Amino acid sequence: MLTLRSQSMMKGLSSRRHIAATLSLLILLGAGSVTPGEAYGQKPGSKRSINVDAVRKIIRVSNGDLRFRITYDRRCLIDSLWIGKTLLCGSNDGGFTGFRVDSTWYTTRRLAGSPAVATSGDSLSIRNIRYVAGRDTIAERWWFALRQNDVLWMIERTLPKPLVIEENAFPVLQIDSIGVFDGSLLGNGGGAWFRLFNDSAIAYGVHTDEATLWSMRDGQCLQMVSRPDKGKSALALSRVGELLRCTFSVSPAETPTSSSP
């Protein structure tokens, strides 16, 4: 399992990881609210839908309280995400994948071309997601499926060779304001209070495959569950300016600890 390096709570963790040539991951997204609102002109609880605008290269996905939009014009990312009335992300790149080698990030925010999209009922496929990392071309394929009140997001990444990386976003989800949620319940029984994230240097990495972000103010919550095809899952929660960044990762084995340099 890969745990990202924390600048405050987890300084003893080694960050460089060997990533295999093929990675697969299933992310389950679920949302709830005691005061459901409206977004995209639809009422929460309305019929779920996947709508593709091939001209503007935009996809809108809706399932109950949870709604989001994907843009795929020479990039592939979730650029807005709603729970009821609440816009979780819209002014920043909300959800994408990628990794960091040395000081350089390579992500789906900049692609070698536009992906191809296909829909079938309550499912969506985005293939030919290609981005360049140095001399190598990384290929990914995303699937989305609507199941009951949840959205399943499956990611498959193929590398031309194994790579050694510092950080892995597989995927990363960014919330515009860390103040939207009070904290996160974790799959290992622990929790994270975002009021303690009072500095942008603070991050929290943990060996877990599940996080439920919640708000005491309005009862809203966003659940994220990671199910890797192989290997172990890890999650890092961090503050970047006013953003809340939730980064999932997968690696063949749990991250060993090392002494601080």
Describe the strand arrangement of the main beta sheet, using strand numbers: 10-11-12-13-2-20-19-16-17
CATH class: Mainly Beta
Question: Which fold name corresponds to the CATH topology?
Answer: Beta-galactosidase, Chain A, domain 5
Mean pLDDT: 79
Any idea what the shape is? globular
Number of helices: 0
Main beta sheet: strand number and arrangement?
Answer: 9 strands, antiparallel
Architecture per CATH nomenclature, i.e. the level-2 architecture: Distorted Sandwich
Distance between the termini: 22 Å
If you compute it from the alpha carbons, what radius of gyration comes out, rounded to the nearest whole angstrom?
A: 18 Å
What fraction of the residues are assigned to beta strands by DSSP?
over 45%
Number of domains: 1
Low-confidence stretches: 1-15, 34-45, 256-261
| Beta strands, count | 22
Order of helices and strands: EEEEEEEEEEEEEEEEEEEEEE
Structural class: mainly beta
**In which range does the helix fraction lie?**
under 10%
